[in-house]
Amino acid sequence: xxxxxxxxxxxxxxxxxxxxxxxxxxxxxxxxxxxxxxxxxxxxxxxxxxxxxxxxxxxxxxxxxxxxxxxxxxxxxxxxxxxxxxxxxxxxxxxxxxxxxxxxxxxxxxxxxxxxxxxxxxxxxxxxxxxxxxxxxxxxxxxxxxxxxxxxxxxxxxxxxxxxxxxxxxxxxxxxxxxxxxxxxxxxxxxxxxxxxxxxxxxxxxxxxxxxxxxxxxxxxxxxxxxxxxxxxxxxxxxxxxxxxxxxxxxxxxxxxxxxxxxxxxxxxxxxxxxxxxxxxxxxxxxxxxxxxxxxxxxxxxxxxxxxxxxxxxxxxxxxxxxxxxxxxxxxxxxxxxxxxxxxxxxxxxxxxxxxxxxxxxxxxxxxxxxxxxxxxxxxxxxxxxxxxxxxxxxxxxxxxxxxxxxxxxxxxxxxxxxxxxxxxxxxxxxxxxxxxxxxxxxxxxxxxxxxxxxxx
Length: 457
Description:
The chain is α/β, with parallel strands linked by helices. It contains 22 helices and five strands. The model has no long low-confidence stretch (mean pLDDT about 90).
């Protein structure tokens, strides 16, 4: 099922934020049933117009059912109509109306939640298996601010505003798990895509941990916390947590993607690609699964890698990854052209690719290799170290490549299958020093397996 943004029937700007906020809240409630796969709000937000065709939207996001609706503010009352439509045949499955005071959004949430659990889920054949562990908002002001934060963009400036709002929300209402989850998500964005750095990354961890203490069935919080552990080399802990998440929520595409992410860092690419395929089968248009492309391309399965890049076609990220796929396919002229469309952000290392592909003087490549041999990248994520090492290997800079690959393994990016199969490392495999890296990668992988097989007390 997918929940589309609701229509604001009289265009009252004071409640415009509810278009997205109510859709998020409905989707949040639906995620607590084991038998439904709910499309993330990030995918459905584009269907914001008042003339959206639910059938077309349903086909585009590959769902059987669409939940849509509208709201109207009259005086001090909010009137909401919700409809569930079966995409095949355009059949109305369920309809309801909810009325609540515009100043009492907690009452509105409570009414909507009850109708979804008691009426909509049985209408969808999903009435059983509801995990009733969700926390309820307790403070009206805090809940109103939380809903406002959901409508703020994730660009650097507005994202900082959202963090400030959510910090106040969790201070006023510290037992509402969704607010902690959102705070974790926003802090991660600030750390990774703005200037928040390590303090915000650690704040993200703390917020996710608090969300899960309050409600262990917050799948997004669980998945993101695992991802954070992986990016900081805490692979054993992440491996065990991901296995537990997939066991607990086997119907969740997000859980399978999280498991694939752990396998990727553990150097178990066949297992990673299997989990990626499962995630995509459950949620066929989720752009968040795009990073699965790395596992496929490093196995040499570039056509399947391109399928995952197409999930986020036209983005900066897609422009960043495309040259790497073309290089592995041996399409050098096409790679040269693709590099010209790459973003210039330092973390994408466009300069290294340009030097590799002789779009810069040879002296630039020599200088970069010399720097790489004597220092480590500034990014804390070891996957980027592997990425650079693979490029240096392709360009014939063996010492720089070996140094970066060994460092990535030491930082728990095990890369065992990658080292054996990645087309970019073909020139490196005949070097005797390569065996040392491969041995270390095997030991890294075994340590992760051992940690995963160890039961927590």
